[in-house]
Amino acid sequence: MSIKLKGDKNIIPTDELKRRDLQIISNMVVAGSRVLDIGCGNGALLDYLGRNKSVDGRGIELSQSGVNACVANGLSVIQGDADTDLEHYPQDAFDYVVLTRTIQATKNPLEVVKSLVRIGRHAVVSFENFGHWRLRLKTLLTGRMPVVGDDGHSWYDTSNIRVCTIRDFATMCDELGLRVQRALSLSRSGSIRELISTGVIANVFGEEAIFLLTRN
């Protein structure tokens, strides 16, 4: 199985990049670009882009185990925190700055997004949509907060401290005066939709979102 986006020539095999958001993001990145992956985990995206698109890749990862895994695979990754360490990077230091499934774990998402579009000519952000109908229904039926992406955790020890919906994120981009070059929603069934608008339908049925941003 593979995922192909309309208008993209590259098809990314799922045995190389397991996560759908990483498959799609890899299609967005132009070959030979300078890429900074913030919260890069085990470095799967950086490794793929380096081998298949000849990018000059760098990474920042909070966990020491993640940094160790990246370095062991020959990736240029340092330990750092998106909330405190991005200010040290100069403007337009990279062509793409990537933040995948991490923004909900930051203390100040607004400042983090500002830093992304300052450091990179393009910023790519993916996140779980807490406005999805399954999460709304779970809250309605159980009266308890849903926990997404943190198996075995509860509301009091989850890493998700600033959860948002697709509409929330789009509104923040408007407030910052950012240009949304591309916005996609992903569903559990595997469908990928281009978001013409971020209205009710996208906010209710999209389980995950990917935004490609730049400064106006």
Structure commentary:
30% of the residues lie in helices and 25% in strands. It has 216 residues and is α/β, with parallel strands linked by helices. The protein has one domain: Rossmann fold (3-Layer(aba) Sandwich). The strands form two sheets. The protein has an eight-stranded mixed sheet with strand order 5-4-3-6-7-10-8-9, sandwiched between helices. A two-stranded antiparallel ribbon has the order 1-2.
Main sheet overview: 8 strands, mixed
Mean pLDDT: 87
The overall strand count is 10
CATH homologous superfamily identity: Vaccinia Virus protein VP39
CA(first)-CA(last) distance: 37 Å
Return the domain count: 1
CATH class: Alpha Beta
Shape: globular
Output the keywords:
7 helices, globular, two-stranded antiparallel ribbon, alpha/beta, Rossmann fold, 216 residues
Write a concise synopsis of the structure shown.
The protein has 216 residues and is α/β, with parallel strands linked by helices.
Write the layout of secondary structure elements.
Elements: E1 2-3, E2 12-13, H1 20-28, E3 34-38, H2 44-53, E4 56-61, H3 64-72, E5 77-79, E6 94-100, H4 109-119, E7 120-128, H5 133-142, H6 166-175, E8 178-186, E9 192-194, H7 200-205, E10 208-215
